[in-house]
């Protein structure tokens, strides 16, 4: 059986490849990447596969049995890019597609959800058995901001008291590996989130505890938070999007207490304190 991993040089893709290599012979794995020269360190065969260039996808998917389709990072282009991959998979006889979607994509008010919903519909009409991994937020989405928060003296956001059930990126990689290497997942949808939840104020308190500094959380109106992000140098559109995601979090879009992720991977998800400590090292 040949397992292909798209976006294999991305942050999630690399973790998936590393975990797969401990369970699957490397000659049964193939990395699908836009720039093969950047994938020479993966330790598995590499094929060129550009979501936006369908002519690269037929050869990339030749002989593939199971495909992990890691969602594109190009917001606004995702649905069309994913359609290209799914159509190439159909034409090449791929037997199972595992797709990294978004937590509660069918009902989520996150702006990101639209393209995931569209992709899920494309998958449903493609006639290929599929599994939906509806990934929640990566804890690293927040811990990557710790340095800036410490420099500025506060965490800022617009999430109010919304609870966030995030997990470490490695936990989501482990979920993908579990589905890719065990039977019985076809037709299933997994809502994947951390075992525990926190508010941004509680995140700030954890960083304060570990650093010995007083780092408060400052909640801002959506427009003010977007303006602050733009002031930090983010493009206007991205700043608006991030602020909107925080507002969605305030309404519960990033909360889930089903613990499907820890059941799927067979162990508790990584605690917030652990990911914070890793970011501070």
Topology (elements, then pairings):
Elements: E1 3-6, H1 11-21, E2 29-33, E3 46-48, H2 57-60, E4 66-69, H3 78-91, E5 96-102, H4 113-126, E6 130-135, H5 140-143, H6 146-152, E7 155-157, H7 169-180, E8 189-192, H8 200-211, E9 217-219, H9 222-231, H10 236-250, H11 260-265, H12 272-280
Parallel strand pairs: 1-2, 1-4, 2-3, 4-5, 5-6, 6-8, 7-9
Defining key terms:
alpha/beta, 7-stranded parallel β-sheet, Rossmann fold, NAD(P)-bd_dom_sf, NAD(P)-bd_dom, SDR family oxidoreductase, NmrA-type_oxidoreductase, 281 residues, 2 domains
How would you portray this structure in words?
It holds the Pfam family NAD_binding_10. It comes from Hymenobacter lutimineralis. This is SDR family oxidoreductase. The structure is a single chain. The chain has 281 residues and is of the alpha/beta class. The protein folds into two domains: 133 residues, NAD(P)-binding Rossmann-like Domain (Rossmann fold, 3-Layer(aba) Sandwich), CATH 3.40.50.720; 110 residues, Alpha-Beta Complex (UDP-galactose 4-epimerase, domain 1), CATH 3.90.25. Helix content is 42%, strand content 14%. The protein has a seven-stranded parallel beta sheet with strand order 3-2-1-4-5-6-8, sandwiched between helices. The chain has a two-stranded parallel sheet with strand order 7-9. α3 packs parallel to α4, α8 crosses α12 and α9 runs antiparallel to α10. The model has no long low-confidence stretch (mean pLDDT 97).
What is the 3D shape?
globular
Q: Averaged pLDDT, please? A: 97
Strand order of the largest sheet: 3-2-1-4-5-6-8
Helix content class:
40-55%
Distance between the termini: 40 Å
User: Beta-sheet strand percentage?
Assistant: 5-15%
What would CATH call the homologous superfamily of the largest domain?
NAD(P)-binding Rossmann-like Domain
**CATH-defined topology of the largest domain:** Rossmann fold
Structural class by sheet pairing and helices: alpha/beta
Give the strand tally: 9
User: How many domains is the backbone divided into?
Assistant: 2
Pick out the low-confidence regions.
Answer: none
CATH class of the largest domain: Alpha Beta
Domain NAD(P)-binding: 8-183
Pfam families: NAD_binding_10
Protein name: SDR family oxidoreductase
């Amino acid at each position: 059986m040949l397992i292909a991993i798209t976006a294999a040089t991305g942050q999630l893709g690399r973790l998936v490849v590393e975990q797969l290599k401990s369970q699957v012979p490397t000659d049964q794995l193939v990395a699908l990447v836009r720039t093969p020269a950047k994938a020479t360190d993966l330790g598995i065969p590499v094929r060129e596969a550009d979501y936006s260039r369908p002519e690269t996808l037929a050869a990339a998917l030749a002989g593939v049995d199971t495909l992990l389709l890691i969602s594109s990072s190009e917001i606004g282009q995702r649905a069309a890019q994913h359609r290209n991959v799914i159509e190439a998979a159909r034409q090449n006889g791929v037997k199972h597609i595992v797709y990294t979607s978004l937590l509660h994509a069918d009902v989520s008010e996150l702006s990101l959800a639209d393209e995931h919903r569209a992709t899920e519909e494309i998958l449903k009409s493609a006639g290929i058995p599929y599994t939906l991994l509806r990934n929640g937020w990566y804890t690293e989405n927040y811990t990557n901001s710790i340095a800036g928060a410490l420099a500025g003296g506060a965490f800022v956001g617009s999430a109010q008291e919304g609870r966030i059930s995030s997990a470490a990126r490695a936990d989501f990689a482990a979920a993908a590996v579990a589905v890719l290497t065990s039977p019985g997942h076809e037709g299933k949808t997994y809502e994947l989130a951390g075992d525990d939840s926190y508010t941004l104020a509680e995140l700030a308190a954890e960083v304060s505890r570990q650093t010995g500094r007083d780092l408060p959380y400052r909640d801002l109106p959506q427009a003010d938070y977007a303006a602050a992000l733009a002031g930090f140098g983010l493009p206007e559109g991205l700043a608006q999007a991030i602020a909107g995601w925080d507002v969605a979090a305030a309404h519960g879009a990033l909360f889930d207490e089903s613990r499907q992720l820890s059941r799927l991977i067979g162990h508790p998800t990584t605690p917030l304190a652990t990911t914070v400590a890793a970011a501070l090292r």
